[in-house]
Amino acid sequence: MATRVIPPRILKKFRYNTATKPLNAVHPSLTPAIAPPAFFEKPPSVAAEVALGMDDAERLFASVSTGRLLRSASVLHATAVGPMVDLGMWVMKSPLLQSGLPRDLVMSVTRETFFSHFCAGEDAAGASKSIGVLNDAGLRSMLVYGVEDAHDNEGCDQNLNGFLHTVTVSKSLPPSSVSFVIVKITAICPMALLERLSDLLRWQQKDPSFVLPWKQDSLPIFAETSPLYHTQKRPEPLTPEEESDLQLANQRLLQLCQKCEEANIPLLVDAEHTTVQPAIDYFTYAASIKHNKASNPIVFGTIQTYLKDAKDRLLLTTNAAEKMGVPMGFKLVRGAYMSTERKLAQSFGHASPIHNTIQDTHNCFNDCASFMLEKVANGPDSVVLATHNIESGKLAVAKAHELGVGKVKQKLEFAQLYGMSEALSYGLSNAGFQVSKYMPFGPVEMVMPYLLRRAEENRGLLAASGFDRQLMRKELGRRLKAAVF
Fold first, then answer.
1. pLDDT on residue 113
2. Residue 163 · residue 188 · CB < 8 Å
3. Where in this chain does the record put each Proline dehydrogenase domain (predicted)?
4. Domain ranges of the chain
C-alpha cells in the first residue's frame, strides 16, 4: 500500500492529503458500545461476546512474547502522540532522506520500529519468518508485495514478476498459512491507462450506445447511485498504442490468475480511489468470470463501504454473477481516501461520494457484511470481512453463528492490518474463525508511504488503536506482577 497518485488534470486547483483516514470506531474504554444498525435485527448474542473474550488480555495475547508485546505497545503509543507523528512524517519526507548518514540513520531506526511492527519483512525470506510466527499463533496471512502505481510497461512487467514470486513463496509455506495473495491493478496496468478506461466506462454508463470495442465480458460496475462526475465530456476512443497496452495489462493479470489457480491460492484485488476504481472493477470482474468456478472463487474484489453506492453495487454485481453461475469473492472494507474524495467531488461541484456520517459508514459495512454472510451460508460465494471495528466483529460473529457459518475454508475470513487490532484478531481466532493479517513486504524505501499512512491512521490518544494499547498495558502489567511476585 503506497502513495496513490490522482492525476494532476483532476486535482488542478486543490491540495490533497494521501494519508489514509481512519473510519473505524473509537474505543477509548475496554467496553466499547455502538447501537447496532438496522440490517442486524438484534444486538450481538451473549455467546458472541463471551466467545471473543475482548476483556481477557491474558488469553488474547497468550501467544505473543513479552518482547514483541513491549515493542508493539511502544510503537502504538508513539503513533498516538500527534507532535511525534508530525515530526516523524516531516523527517521521512524531508531532503534528509536523499543520501548520506542521516538517511542511513533514519532508515535504521524506521526498520527496527515502525517497519518491524507494520510490515512482514524486506524480502520474501523475511516475510516467511513473520508468517511462520503468525501461523504458530493461529493466524493466517495475506501476502502483499508492496508496490503500486506503475507508469509504463517496463515498471508493470517488473511488478508482475514480484507478484508471481509472491505466489511461488506462498505455495512453499505451510498449507493454509497464506490465505490470499494481494495485487494492485495500479501496479500491473499504467495509471494513465486506468484513468482513460475509467472515463470510457463512466461515459458508457451515461450513454449505453457508446461502444467500447475492447471491452470483455464483465459484471455491473456502476449502480444508479454511483458518481459519474469525474468524466465531464465524451472521452476519445483508445488509441492503437493504448489498446496494445490494455492487451498487455490483460495478459499480466491472466498470468497472475493462472499462477494463483495452479497454487490454489486466491488472488485478492485491492481497491483504490474512485478516479480509477471503475477500471479496477472491470479487470476484477472480467477475471472472475474466467477463473471463478464451482464454489472456489480464485479472484476476489474489494468493496469500500464508506462510499454511498457500495451496497447498491454489491447487490447488482452479485445478482448478475449468480445469474451467470459465477461464484464471487469480496473483501469488505470501510475505505481510504476520505479527504481526497471529498475534495475531488467539491472541485467538480458535487456532493461527496462518501457517507455523511461515520455511523452511516458503520451501517453500510454491517449491512454488506450481513448480506454476504447470507450469500456464504446459502451459496458458493465467499467473503473477507476486513475490519478493525470491534462492534462490527461482534455483529458478524453473531450473524455467522445464527446462519451456521463457521470455520469453512475460504468461505468466511476476518482480516486486519498487520500490527493493528491485534486483540480483535486473536479474539476472533479464539472464537474459531479464520483470521488473516494484511502483511506488506519489501524494502523500507518502497513501503515508506504505507508506513506514513499507518502512523497517520493511529495518531491521537483516541485513535482506533487505543483499545489495543489499553489491553497491552493491562497484559504487560499482569506479566510484570507475575514476574515480581
1. 77
2. yes
3. 138-460
4. 46-55+121-447
Q: What is the pLDDT of residues 290-343, one digit of tens each?
A: 999 988 899 999 999 999 999 999 999 999 999 999 999 999 999 878 888 899
Tell me which residue of 179, 55, 190, 70 sits closest to 438, measured CA to CA. Answer: 179
Q: Which residues contact 214 (CB under 8 A, 6 or more apart)?
A: 238, 243, 246
Question: Considering the domain 46-55+121-447 in this protein, what is its CATH number?
Answer: 3.20.20.220
Distance CA 189, CA 124 (A): 23
Q: What is the pLDDT of residue 450?
A: 74
pLDDT of residue 29: 34
CB 143 within 8 A of CB 169: yes
Kindly give the parts of the chain with pLDDT less than 50: 1-42, 46-47, 50, 460-462
User: What pLDDT does residue 15 have?
Assistant: 33
Chain-centre distance of CA 476, in angstroms? 30
Q: What is the predicted pLDDT for the residue at 87?
A: 66
pTM of the model: 0.85
What is the Cα–Cα distance from 292 to 30, expressed in whole angstroms?
41
Angle made by CA atoms 152, 7, 94, in degrees to the nearest 5: 85
